[in-house]
Write a structure and sequence with these properties.
With 393 residues, this protein is mainly α. The chain has 16 helices and no strands. α3 (42-70) packs antiparallel against α4 and α6 (133-155) packs antiparallel against α11. One of its GO terms (molecular function) is lactose:proton symporter activity.
Length: 393
């Protein structure tokens, strides 16, 4: 392993994350607003958004396994990015619930599967080229902030179609960024297996995934209905964009100082921080839409998302062998942003029409449940995360 990260690698990985999360900014902050503007009800919005997470249960394992079996992670990442680009182009041409739902199920699944495969390539770069993951990943967060703010300003008072136009440009940029990534491949010993289910068979990783995935899935109501909830409360598009960006500003600090946080808190501490922050965040969001309070609690995104994500990447880097890296990332992502998240999104859609903001309390209950799971399995996770990762089995 190189002693210092190469500046070119840092730039290219940072560019990939920046392009990827510019699209995420549009999807999270404005895509539900676009769906609502197209005439879909809250229940239909929840079903359309949830469909992507359910299909991801198939798309995620398929592409993660292909990435590990062939060793060509960049290739499959490019296939996903190009496919997603053409799906977004197709959204310009269709109307009606089923055409939009089916297209977004495919496109959303392809988009969110890009993230764990990108992370698996980054983990390889951490091991092979001493990439500073936090420094590269924070460019995704910075991109999210800038695009959220500019997009909110750009579409305010304009045609609904502007949102889809912005998403199209961002997905095109993501395709170009992937093509410039280095084509890193894992080292596998003869006879070693690369399988999605091989990663699942590691017991401490399986337990860790359930806990971390439950924390991440508690964001379902936020991603699906926060923008609509705030818009109904009288907040403007620019104020909503500012709230999304503000949460990620603090997230940037977590990634920038990730190594120091790991020294002080380690994996158990990071998960505990996420659980405590999530419990407070979802409780307050269910109580008020006052802008001052919303600004205060959006900073807790650093706990609920960033701390959990840093714990996941660290656990995989320490415990999972190279040839299972994409499969491990994919397994976590299928649980966090597929099975559990899809269920939470569906529940949010069913509840939001009746409960409105109190739907966030259900997400808070998920976070509390994660806390109990962590207490029961703390020793297993601590011992598992201390085990050295293997280059090959």
């Amino acid at each position: 392993m190189a002693s210092k990260p190469h500046l070119r690698d840092q730039f290219l990985f940072g560019l990939n994350y920046a392009a990827l999360f510019s699209g995420a900014a549009i999807v999270l902050a404005l895509f539900p607003v676009w769906l609502k503007g197209e005439g879909f009800s809250e229940n239909e919005v929840g079903l359309i958004l949830g469909a992507a997470f359910w299909l991801k249960v198939i798309i995620g394992p398929l592409f993660s396994s292909l990435a590990d079996i062939t060793g060509r992670r960049k290739l499959w990442l490019a296939v996903l990015a190009i496919g997603y680009f053409f799906v977004v182009l197709s959204l310009h041409q269709v109307t009606g619930f089923w055409p939009v739902a089916l297209l977004w199920a495919l496109g959303g699944a392809m988009f969110t599967t890009q993230i764990p495969i990108s992370d698996s390539i980054s983990v390889l770069a951490v091991r092979q080229r001493a990439l500073d993951y936090g420094s590269a990943r924070l460019w995704g967060s910075l991109s999210f902030i800038v695009v959220s703010l500019l997009a909110g300003w750009y579409v305010q008072g304009g045609e609904n179609s502007l949102i889809l136009e912005l998403l199209t440009w961002c997905t095109g940029l993501a395709v170009l960024a992937v093509l410039f990534l280095p084509d890193l491949r894992s080292n596998r010993s003869k006879g070693s297996k690369a399988s999605f289910w091989e990663a699942f068979r590691i017991p401490e990783f399986r337990t860790f995934v359930w806990i971390a995935a439950s924390i991440q899935a508690s964001h379902a109501a936020l991603y699906g209905f926060a923008s609509l909830h705030w818009q109904a409360a009288g907040l403007s598009e620019s104020q909503i964009a500012l709230l999304w960006a503000e949460g990620v500003v603090i997230e940037v600090l977590v990634f920038a100082f990730g190594r120091r946080l790991l020294i002080k808190l380690d994996i158990i501490g990071l998960l505990s921080l996420a659980i405590l922050g999530g419990t407070l965040r979802w409780f307050v969001m269910g109580l008020t839409t006052d802008l001052v309070w919303l600004i205060a609690i959006q900073s807790l995104h650093a706990c609920t998302y960033a701390a959990t994500h840093l714990a996941v990447v660290t656990f995989i880097t320490r415990r999972i062998p190279d040839h299972l890296g994409a499969s491990a990332q994919g397994l976590y992502d299928v649980m966090a942003m597929g099975i559990i998240f899809g269920g939470a999104m569906w529940i949010s859609g069913e509840l939001y029409g009746a409960l409105q903001g109190k739907t966030f309390w259900v997400m808070g209950a998920m976070t509390v449940f994660s806390g109990f799971m962590l207490l029961l399995n703390m020793r297993k996770i601590r011992e598992g995360s201390a085990a050295p990762s293997r280059a090959a089995d």
